[in-house]
Amino acid sequence: MASVQEVLSGNRLSLARLLSQIENDTPDGRAALSELFPHTGQAHLIGVTGAPGTGKSSLVNQLAHYYRHPPENKTPKRVAIVAIDPSSPFSGGAVLGDRVRMRDLAGDPGVFIRSMASRGSLGGLARTTSGVVQAFDAAGFEIILIETVGAGQAEVDIARLAHTTLVVEAPGLGDDIQAIKAGILEIADILVVNKADRAGVENTERALRNMLNLAHPVKRVYRHHGTLETVPAVPASTTESPEQESVWVPPIQKTVATDGTGVPELGDLIAQHKAHLEQTGDWEGRQRARLQAELDGLLQIILVSRWRDALSPERYQEVLEQLIERNLSPRQAVEELLNGAPRS
Amino acid sequence: MSETERKIRVLIAKPGLDGHDRGAKVVARALRDAGMEVIYTGLRQTPEMIAEAALQEDVDVVGLSILSGAHMALAPRVLELLKANGQDHVQIFLGGIIPNEDISKLQEMGVTGIYGPGTLTDEIVRDVRKGVVGEVSN
Fold first, then answer.
1. Residues in B touching A64 (Cβ below 8 Å)
2. Alpha helices in A194-281 (DSSP H)
3. Beta partners for A169?
4. Which residue in A26, A33, A109, B36 is deepest, having the highest Cβ count within 10 Å?
5. What is the number of structural domains in chain B?
6. Interhelix angle for A12-23 vs A27-36, to 10°?
7. How confident is the model at residue A331 (pLDDT cuts 50, 70, 90)?
């Protein structure tokens, strides 16, 4: 496919068009992704999540700026940004406004920003976000910043996609009970307290620190579709180091995303996290868990759709009516559809 | 696996220096409610920034809101840059205060719709949809 070659050689228009194909899940898009897949696996995927209004977009803007203009004599990295905003559950439309905070990046050919609507997906990402990220990875972007939908407590898909997940908090968003609930704070590799020039920042930081002190440092094991996904154990060669050293305790970094305060320090922490993942073998572990989740997810979708294609709509309607009349329970209805002989 | 329904993607931008963005927001909201995906870029965009965003976002349509009187400079420049980027198919519409004598000139340059104060948003939605769907089917 000609467009795949163009994407690999850095053609931005071809890349933009391919991203639409992937987003729309067209046959061309699927074929191109398969062709690009061997070129993926190079980029550092950094997730940025947190409640609406905590300053995720501004922080992503600052981080991209940091990677483009790194301190000392480090070489700038090519940065892709995938920014996801919600679709309306009623019209299916969306207003994607994350670019408003990213105007500093305009005119830099080493940056590519793509806005995505969630299109009905509930985990904080769109269903095709991982495909879009793979395309950026194959196209040679070394850093991929993925900004989720403004997330509440349960939108944790990003932790499965990204190597490093930043959870952004801001002063005044909740007390220490919020901080011990399960969910979004648990997935943080780095906790960012943004808007650190505001009153109350000490309280937020203290609540988060207490939360971390309560937690036992444990190795991450992701639950996925109700089944346990075990990230493979640390290879034998590195297990000699004491357990404490191989467990990453999420650091807390204060930032002011509007002026860039704390961003170089955050950049250092992200680099440390990457080094930690590589050292402990977790980098491969996370890749493995992510690809397995993608495999299982796709299997489910494709199995269901193939089975639906083979099922007559009349038969489905018939069972649905029985369910609605409460002659069958939902589980019985499923069994009826899967196993039951069609009624004569 | 069924294909996701193709969404119309629209970039709404405010080039130039005036700060009146209510019109742009009203139009963005109306297009959203019509099921489109609207990328909103905010105030004080240069034509270069608009063309770059249109490319990265692979939009079908660009809507420019201009109330500064600079439309005869800004709109042709955006059109020129879109073409230079290979996005010849992208349509441009204009909202704001555009004097009558400029309307035909802008249309000749390739601006597909020009909407002044009092335009019904339904009209803009209909034109955008017609322009894009018509373009896709031929």
1. none
2. 201-214, 243-246, 263-280
3. A193
4. B36
5. 1
6. 120
7. very high
Token duo for residue A125 = 């990402």
Domain residue limits, chain A: 40-281
Is A40 near chain B, with CB under 8 Å? no
| pLDDT band of A53, cuts 50, 70, 90 | confident
Contact B42 A114 (CB under 8 A): no
Please indicate if any CB of chain B lies within 8 Å of the CB of A95.
yes
Task: Tell me if B38 is assigned to some domain.
Answer: yes
Q: Which residue of B has its CA nearest to A108?
A: B52
Q: Is the pTM of this model over 0.90?
A: no
Which spans in chain A are helix H?
2-8, 12-23, 27-36, 56-68, 129-138, 157-161, 176-180, 201-214, 243-246, 263-280, 282-310, 313-324, 330-339
CATH fold group of domain A40-281? Rossmann fold (3.40.50)
Contact residues on chain B for A24, CB-CB shorter than 8 A: 3-7
Residue A19 touches chain B, beta carbons under 8 Å? yes
| Residue A16 to residue B85, Cβ atoms within 8 A | no
Q: How far is Cα B77 from Cα B68, in angstroms, rounded to an integer?
A: 16
Q: Residue B53: list chain A partners with CB under 8 A.
A: 99, 106, 113
pLDDT band of residue A23 (cuts 50, 70, 90) is very high
Does the pLDDT at position B38 exceed 50? Answer: yes
B42 vs A92: CB contact, 8 Å cut-off?
no
Inter-chain touch B33–A302, beta carbons under 8 Å: no
**What is the torsion angle, in degrees rounded to the nearest 10, for the CA atoms of residue B115, residue B120, residue B123 and residue B129?**
90
Q: What's the CATH number where B120 sits?
A: 3.40.50.280
Residue B46 lies in a domain: yes
Each residue's pLDDT tens digit, A187-234: 899 999 999 999 889 888 888 888 777 765 555 555 555 555 555 444
Q: Model ipTM? A: 0.90
Task: Give pLDDT tens digits for B99-136.
Answer: 999 999 999 999 999 999 999 999 999 999 998 887 54
CA distance B95 to chain A (A): 18
